[in-house]
Amino acid sequence: MGLKWFPLIIVMIILLSCYGHVFRQTNRKFWQNVTVYSCLVYLLVLCWLVFTPVGPQMPDSYKSLMYFHGVPYNLRPLQNIDPEFVANIFMTFPLGCYVYCWRPRLKSWNLLLIALTPGLIIESTQFISDLLVGNHRVADIDDVITNTLGVLIGYGIFWLLSKTPGERLLNYFRLEK
């Protein structure tokens, strides 16, 4: 196994160890357990998608990238809207739904900070792992923006659903009532 896989393995170990306290809680109902375990599976798949090393050749980019010790990054937001832009929103949309199930009554600033965190963690970890082991990932401010939007949209849709008769169904999956 190559050194390029270590960031993925380390991130998954950190995720599983942070998730450990959630596993110890035993007073949840069946549908709440569905929320907890499906969230873990989602987060593991997300880690796989964003931290798996890519091939040795970086694709030609339509963005003007900058480099730090050979590591590409983009700090110029919204140069191009492409399918990857939309895919990143869909990638973190479920996370917003899970955040709502965990904390349905967040203040706007707290929600914004929580929504911003995944994109910052993903992109900074990709940058650092590329710097350390050469995973050929590009740290991109657009990804931070789209990941944040995805979380906000997911949370917003569940918040809107909670204002409809669908709230009864949603309550089964909530961890905080």
From TrEMBL:
InterPro entries membership: Teicoplanin_resist-assoc, VanZ-like
The keyword Transmembrane helix is annotated on this UniProt entry: yes
TM ranges: 6-22, 34-51, 85-102, 109-129, 144-161
Keywords: Membrane, Transmembrane, Transmembrane helix
Matches recorded under PROSITE patterns: PROKAR_LIPOPROTEIN
Record-annotated VanZ-like domain positions: 40-161
Residue stretches in coiled coil: none
Protein name, entry field: VanZ family protein
Species this protein is from: Limosilactobacillus alvi
